[in-house]
Write a structure and sequence with these properties.
Layout lengths: L1 E6 L3 H17 L4 E7 L4 H4 L6 E5 L15 H19 L3 E6 L4 H9 L4 E5 L6 H6 L5 E4 L15 E3 L15 H8 L6 E6 L6 H12 L6 E6 L5 H4 L8 E4 L6 H6 L2 E4 L3 H9 L4 E3 L9 H11 L4 E2 L7 H12 L2 H13 L5 H13 L1
Parallel strand pairs: 1-2, 1-4, 2-3, 4-5, 5-6, 6-7, 8-9, 8-11, 9-10, 11-12, 12-13
Helix pairs in contact: 1-14, 3-4, 7-12
Length: 363
C-alpha cells in the first residue's frame, strides 16, 4: 500500500512529512511512504538522502505582495498538471497527505479529483493558503494548534483532530537536569538559558544575545546557544565553557532541552511543538516576516494558554531581553506555571496518532 505525502518548500512543511513517513513505516509492514516536493524547495537537498522514493514537481510559490511574479504559472501550469497526473497514475496511492506549502497543493487537489482520500496536516495557529484551499476536500484534518479550526471551512463529514505536530518525541523517561548538566560539563545548580538561534531568520535573536553578553548581562546564567551553521563564524567566538556553550547546531538536542530552565526561540510550529513536549518554559520572538505573520499567531496562542511568553521583535533589545530572562529565571513559580502550560499543549505522540488515523482511512 502506498501513501503519498506532499509538502515542502520550507523545512516547516517537509519535516512533518518525513516524521509521518517514519511513523507509517514503523506502524505497519507493507506500507510505502512516497514523498512529493518542489524542485526549488529545501527538499531537493534533503530527500535524496532520506531513504524514501520521492518526486520533485516544477511548482512555484504563489506571491501575495509581488503578484506580477505569478505570471510564470501560465507557462508552468501545463507541465505541472502533466507531472501530477503521471505520478498519481503510476503510484495509485491509497491516501494522499498534505503537510502544506506550495509543493502540496497541485498534487493533493488532483488526487481529490480522482476520488483518492485526502488528509491535511496543518502546523500553525493560522492555517496556510494551501490548507485553506484543500480543507473542503479533506477526509481528515490534523491541527498542530486547535486555534486553526476557526479559520477553516470544511465539510460536515470531515473529521478534525487536535493532533499536534509530528515531532520526534522526548525519550521516556526524560533525562533529568542533573544528568544532562553533568554530560554537558556545567554546574548542576546553575540557571540555564537555551538560545535556539539556529532557525532560518534568527539573526536578530543572535545579535541581541551577543550584545547582551557584551554588556555584561547573563553574568550569573549558563547559556547554551545554537547559532545556526550560517552564523557560526559571527558568533562562535562567544563559546566560553562551562558558562557559555555555543554550537552551530545541537544534534542531538535532548541534553540541551533537558538541562535548561528557559528557552528563547522563534515561534515556528515545529520548534514550539518540541519545546512544549519537553515542558520547557519559553520566550518566543516570532519572525515578523513569516508568511501571513503566522509565527506571531503561534506565539500569541501559546501565551494566551499560559504556555509561553511572547516578545515581538520590535520590542527585542539587549536590555529588554536580559531583564525579562532574569525576571523569569528568578521566579520559580512562574517557570513552573509556564512548564505546566507547555505540557498541557504537548502532543509528543502526534506522528503515531496521525499515522494511525491515516492507515485507518486507507483501510
Amino acid at each position: 500500500m502506498r501513501v503519498l505525502l506532499a509538502g515542502g518548500g520550507t523545512g516547516g512543511h517537509l519535516m512533518p512529512a518525513l516524521a509521518l513517513a517514519e511513523a507509517l513505516r514503523r506502524l505497519r509492514d507493507g506500507v510505502e511512504p512516497i514523498l512529493v516536493g518542489a524542485e526549488r524547495g529545501v527538499e531537493r537537498d534533503i530527500l535524496p538522502t532520506s531513504g524514501y522514493r520521492y518526486y520533485l514537481l516544477p511548482v512555484h510559490p504563489i506571491y501575495r505582495a509581488a503578484w506580477w511574479r505569478n505570471a510564470r504559472w501560465l507557462v508552468a501550469l501545463p507541465k505541472l498538471l502533466g507531472a501530477t497526473a503521471a505520478i498519481l497514475e503510476k503510484e495509485q496511492p491509497a491516501v494522499v497527505v498534505s503537510t502544506g506549502g506550495y509543493a502540496a497543493g497541485p498534487i493533493v487537489w488532483a488526487a481529490s479529483r480522482r476520488g483518492i482520500p485526502i488528509v491535511v496536516q496543518e502546523q500553525n495557529a493560522l492555517p496556510g493558503m494551501t490548507t485553506r484551499w484543500l480543507a473542503r476536500r479533506a477526509h481528515q484534518i490534523h491541527l498542530g494548534f486547535p486555534e486553526a479550526r476557526e479559520h477553516l471551512e470544511i465539510r460536515e463529514s470531515t473529521l478534525v483532530f487536535d493532533s499536534g505536530n509530528p515531532i520526534a518525541p522526548p525519550p521516556v523517561p526524560m533525562p533529568g537536569k542533573r544528568v544532562a548538566r553533568h554530560a554537558l560539563g556545567i554546574d548542576e545548580n546553575a540557571s540555564v538559558l537555551f538560545i535556539v538561534g539556529g532557525s532560518q531568520g534568527a539573526h536578530a535573536i543572535n545579535r541581541v544575545v551577543a550584545d547582551a553578553i557584551d554588556s555584561g548581562a547573563f553574568s550569573g546564567v549558563t547559556v547554551l546557544w545554537s547559532t545556526g551553521k550560517g552564523q557560526w563564524e559571527e558568533f562562535g567566538s562567544y563559546h566560553k565553557p562551562p558558562w557559555r556553550i555555543v554550537r552551530a547546531f545541537w544534534d542531538p538536542i535532548d541534553e540541551a532541552y533537558a538541562a535548561s530552565n528557559l528557552a528563547v526561540a522563534r515561534a515556528g510550529a515545529m520548534t514550539t511543538a518540541e519545546l512544549c513536549a519537553w515542558g520547557l518554559p519559553a520566550l518566543y520572538v516570532p519572525l515578523p516576516h513569516a508568511a501571513a505573520d503566522h509565527q506571531t499567531r503561534n506565539a500569541k496562542a501559546l501565551a494566551e494558554a499560559g504556555a509561553a511568553i511572547h516578545m515581538p521583535e520590535a520590542d527585542l533589545t539587549a536590555d529588554g531581553l536580559a531583564s525579562e530572562v532574569q525576571r523569569l529565571l528568578e521566579d520559580d513559580d512562574r517557570l513552573a506555571g509556564l512548564a505546566a502550560g507547555a505540557l498541557s499543549r504537548a502532543r509528543p505522540q502526534a506522528a503515531e496518532d496521525i499515522a494511525t488515523r491515516i492507515l485507518a482511512l486507507a483501510g
